[in-house]
Amino acid sequence: MKFFNKNINKVLSVVLVVVSVLVVLQFVCSNGTLNAGETPTESAMARVNPNIRKIVPATTVSATTVPVETTTAKPKATKATTQPQTKATKATKATTQPVTTTQATVPFATAIPPKEPVDYQSQWDAGYLVAIDNPDKTYECSKVTLTDEDRDLLERLCMGEFGSGGFIGAALIAQSVKDAMCFDGYPTVASVIENCHYTGSTKIGTNQECIQAVSYIFDENKDAVQHRIMYMYNPDMVQSAFHESQNYILTYQTVRFFDRWGY
After folding, report:
1. Domain positions in the chain
2. Which of 19, 46, 164, 259 shows its CA 20 to 30 Å from the CA of 1?
């Protein structure tokens, strides 16, 4: 009888372990990919516009991460020879040069606490793809008209920088480029790539999600988030004290996006 009870206990222990594993897996799957420095309740994946399928009905919102190199703008913008169709705003001079390190763990920055309760629904209704906890209600970037050359280059850049991020990942990259053109006066996508140090390959082509993202951000003059975004990096690839010293906006998958302090 004692031997029988031991076997029963072993079986029950195994069943308990299996059930525990299944519960954990269900929890992770139901909350999406956990983002760098975020808890499930803070995850930007949980704040994606519920109408995303209506915005991009022909695409699939990807949940796969992809390496993204750091992108940092120089302190001063180069003088534009041909102004884009934007209300260009004078760029603030950067006081800290980008610095990356792999010698020590860089603590993740957090978003500025909102002064009032955040209304995600109003952000979604306005067409923003991801609701954020620190929206800038004064943020506005006038429409930028792309040449055919710029459009082709940007579509390929979105693929090279964050192609596996799907439509939303590509839209975040496209918005970053548009913001650089709006606020720093860069006249072309090529000048943004050069001066802001984008390193994503533009030689691997593009896909339908990137094409749609560029159209959404530029042709429809929409934005991925209600805030200017100027920098991004993937902490799974490199640690960057510079990026984490900037104004943190959101993490999508493992890619962290920032604005610089001040306009």
Report:
1. 32-259
2. 19
